[in-house]
Amino acid sequence: MTTSTPAALGFEDIQHNLNAMRARIAAACAHAGRDPSEVRLLPVTKTVDEHRLRLAYAAGVRQMGENKVQEAHEKWQSMADLADLQWCVIGHLQTNKAKLVAEFASEFHALDNLRVAEALDKRLQSLGRSLKVLVQVNTSGEASKFGVEPAQALELVQQLPAFGSLQVCGLMTLALNSSEESQVRPCFALLRQLRDQMQQETPYAGQMRELSMGMSGDFAWAIQEGATTVRVGQAIFGARTAPAAAR
Ligand SMILES: *Cc1c(COP(=O)(O)O)cnc(C)c1O
């Protein structure tokens, strides 16, 4: 699989890429014997400017994923006129930025410690908001990746009911950055196993549905392993020229 989609500059490029991505998701679902309505496409808009985000909105996009909180917050403010547009923060969060996320995000996919959970909950309570939360697990074992260790994930999730404004709904991961299926798929399979275990052994039971996994280069394998949300940037908006952000 390749991620070398040229930069999508106009409405038609973006619409074309969205449709192509939906077709690729449907094909991956057919291959996996799954119903495509079980897999959500979350467009990832990091480094994409407001003009192109508005074109994506015009093409029907109503949720956008951003890995940097500050960038997401600025885009939320400048696009506040699009009242039904939801923001999903998908990248690591420092405790001191939790209050920003609490203000505007509808989902947070990268919870990996109790301090952030506590900071989010405190702020959400005072704002009278709630937040869908996915716990990020480091399934690749790489030191450069964020996320709770697989062996610690259950214990973290078991402590989250203390934070009443967090709606814990699943797990998220970034696979090993490799083009080898045999290297990438085990990361996704491990996330699914952990999710299934949590359905049994945490107070969340049936609520822990989400598996947020798979990006432009590896979404088809993630769908094979049960992904319910794929986070796709470059295949929609084109190759990023900016340096790769921390994962
Ligand atoms: C950038 C990013 C993605 C999307 O990656 P693409 O290669 O652009 O599809 C997915 N998840 C996270 C956490 C990201 O930071």
Automatic annotation (TrEMBL):
<feature type="domain" description="Alanine racemase N-terminal">
    <location>
        <begin position="17"/>
        <end position="240"/>
    </location>
</feature>
<comment type="similarity">
    <text>Belongs to the pyridoxal phosphate-binding protein YggS/PROSC family.</text>
</comment>
<protein>
    <recommendedName>
        <fullName>Pyridoxal phosphate homeostasis protein</fullName>
    </recommendedName>
</protein>
<dbReference type="InterPro" id="IPR011078">
    <property type="entry name" value="PyrdxlP_homeostasis"/>
</dbReference>
<comment type="function">
    <text>Pyridoxal 5'-phosphate (PLP)-binding protein, which is involved in PLP homeostasis.</text>
</comment>
<dbReference type="InterPro" id="IPR001608">
    <property type="entry name" value="Ala_racemase_N"/>
</dbReference>
<dbReference type="Pfam" id="PF01168">
    <property type="entry name" value="Ala_racemase_N"/>
</dbReference>
<dbReference type="InterPro" id="IPR029066">
    <property type="entry name" value="PLP-binding_barrel"/>
</dbReference>
<dbReference type="GO" id="GO:0030170">
    <property type="term" value="F:pyridoxal phosphate binding"/>
</dbReference>
<feature type="modified residue" description="N6-(pyridoxal phosphate)lysine">
    <location>
        <position position="46"/>
    </location>
</feature>
<keyword id="KW-0663">Pyridoxal phosphate</keyword>
